[in-house]
Amino acid sequence: MRFASPLVPATLISRYKRFLFDAVLEDGTHITGSCPNTGSMRGLTTPGSRVWLSEHDSPTRKYRHMFEMIEADGTIVGINTGLPNKLAEEAIVSGLIPTLGGYDLLKREQKYGLQSRIDFLLSGEGRPDCYVEVKNVHFMRQQHLAEFPDTATKRGARHLDELGDMVEAGHRAVMLYVIQRNDCDALRICGDLDPIYAAAFRRAAARGVEAYALSCAVSPQEVRAVRLIEVQELV
Length: 235
What we know:
Strand content: 35-45%
Shape: globular
Number of domains: 2
Order of helices and strands: EEEEEEHEEEEEHEEHEE
Number of helices: 3
CATH topology of the largest domain: Trna Endonuclease, Chain: A, domain 1
Number of strands: 15
Distance between the termini: 35 Å
Structural class: alpha+beta
Largest sheet: 9 strands, mixed
CATH class of the largest domain: Alpha Beta
Strand order of the largest sheet: 7-8-9-12-14-15-13-11-10
Helix content: 10-25%
């Protein structure tokens, strides 16, 4: 996914109230912008970090600039949680995830379970429907190892249980982790930060839910899914 316009480099002052950030542009202008990530962004909010922002001229927007990327751990990390579904769809359609290929129809945001929407529903004649849930990943503590989640997520645990229900109903169910950084060779479920999610992952795997991790190439010009990497088993 290429950006329509070049991203604007800046220096981060702070990210706060989940939705906002302050930064200094290269010409010295101090700005406030919107942050398209309401999560903890653990490890990705260090003041003084180099960041990249998109610009938006719509009169309906309160802030012109939006936080897109940050330099951390010697690489560029994408933080926009609006991108993973687009990246996942590109990867599925292009055949980058072979096990999700060959379906005739891809539907977005379909209702399922008790109170959820699945990111993608794949269907094809003579094949069981495939429910695909996408999660954004950008957390790393150990070199080359992505981790999810970076904070407790009851909603994420619920999604895993509902995917297990779909498998038991005769469908396929897939958890797809999209990693917006290009320095990771594997993904690990972060059980120490969220043991409830880790337990839900174990239950889902035992029920037949599939898990894949998709590494991306991230630059101020584009974010692009490039390869599948290992999903490590929980111990």
